[in-house]
Amino acid sequence: MSETKNRPYHHGDLRRALIGTALDMLATDQNWTFTLREVARRTGVSHAAPYKHFRDREMLLRELARIGFVRLGESMTEAMSLGLASTRARFTAAAQACIRFACQNPGLYRLMFSSDADKTIDPQLHDAAMDTFGILLRLLRDGQQDGSFRPVAVSALAAASWAQVHGLAMLAISNQLLEEKVGSAPVPASLDVLLDGMCRSD
């Protein structure tokens, strides 16, 4: 990324520019060890400029995580809106979209579920995470209403499915889904096993 010293920004543009730089750094480095000073330098502004929008580095990281949850939710929603005939097919599409998002944004995905993205102290981050989780909950409730999924507590279905999908995503971005361990198509095979357990047998 080219750097320009003391580049002028309007107030809102500066915030967007800082976030864009931080997202680029996260995508390139796959970690979030950068400082606000480094973000400012790469954005081409003074080292004090980020503090007009972010109290500290942790506040910026939480904003990146919030953006990640919004983008993840959009990816899942888009995948489910492709005219799929069954709830099971929509669940599979949403799950695969989640795993694909993680593989395309491994650094951001890890940050979203790290202790640096503390949802208990950031209402906007909390709401974004819950909105994304709400996509799963609505899908599961739809499946129960149309008779696809078992009539158990939706929280149990949510916990089982979220743990499975998130686990697959983390294994995928850590390059642990090796063929000699889990076969040549571990994601669809694992989702089929999960859905066989979630779906009604009658």
UniProtKB/TrEMBL annotation:
InterPro entries: Homeodomain-like_sf, HTH-type_TetR-like_transc_reg, HTH_TetR, MT1864/Rv1816-like_C, Tet_transcr_reg_TetR-rel_C_sf. One of its GO terms (molecular function) is DNA-binding transcription factor activity. Pfam families: TetR_C_33, TetR_N. PROSITE patterns: HTH_TETR_2. This is TetR/AcrR family transcriptional regulator.
